[in-house]
C-alpha cells in the first residue's frame, strides 16, 4: 500500500463508480432518424417509379374510338407491330409511297405482312386514315389485298395487310425492265 504525507490511501471500491457510457448509446439516438430518412427515400423512390409508369402508359395509350366499334376493324398494338417488323428495320423496308413507308413483318411468326406506316398531323390526316381503314375493311375483291388491321398512336398510323410476294401492282404496271 502507498502512503503519503497526509496519511494512507483508501481502497477503491469499483462497484461504486459510475458506469462508463458505451459508444453505441450515441448510435441508438440516430436509429429513429435513420429509419425516418430511409422511409422518406423509399416513398420518394416509389412515387418516382409510379410517375414514370403513368407517364409511359399515357404516352403510349391507344384510345378506342366510336368508328372502330361501328366498322369492327381489328386493331393491333403498336408494340406488337414494332416487334413484328423488328423495329421498322431497314432490312424490312419495302418502299415509299405518297402516304408513307411500307415495311415487311411477320405476324404470329408464320404469316408475312406488309405494314404501311403513315404520319399525319391535324384532323385531315385522321379523317383520311379513318376513310382508308373503313373503305379497305368494307371492300372485298379477289384482286384487292385485304386489310388485316390497323394501329393508331397519336400522329402515327399503321395499316396491316398481307404481304404480296410477287410485288405491288405499281411495279407490274410501270416497271419497264420486267417483261
Summarize the entry for a quick read.
With 179 residues, this protein is an alpha+beta fold. It has helices at 24-59, 66-71, 78-84, 123-138, 169-174; strands at 3-4, 7-8, 93-96, 101-107, 111-119, 147-153, 156-162.
Please describe what this structure looks like.
Keywords: ATP-binding, Membrane, Nucleotide-binding, Transmembrane, Transmembrane helix. This is AT5G60310-like protein. The structure is a single chain. By secondary structure, this protein is of the alpha+beta class. It is 40% helix and 21% strand. Strand 3 and strand 4 form a beta hairpin.
- Beta-strand fraction estimate: 15-25%
User: How are the strands of the largest sheet arranged?
Assistant: 3-4-5-7-6
Number of strands: 7
CATH architecture of the largest domain: 2-Layer Sandwich
| Rg over CA atoms | 37 Å
Share of helical residues: 25-40%
Stretches where pLDDT falls below 50 for ≥5 residues?
none
Order of helices and strands: EEHHHEEEHEEH
Quote the CATH topology of the largest domain: Phosphorylase Kinase, domain 1
The largest sheet is: 5 strands, antiparallel
Name the CATH homologous superfamily of the largest domain: Phosphorylase Kinase, domain 1
How much is the average pLDDT? 78
From the spread of the alpha carbons, the general shape counts as rod-shaped
* Terminal residue distance: 127 Å
Number of domains: 2
CATH first level of the largest domain: Alpha Beta
Number of helices: 5
Which class best fits the helix and strand makeup?
alpha+beta
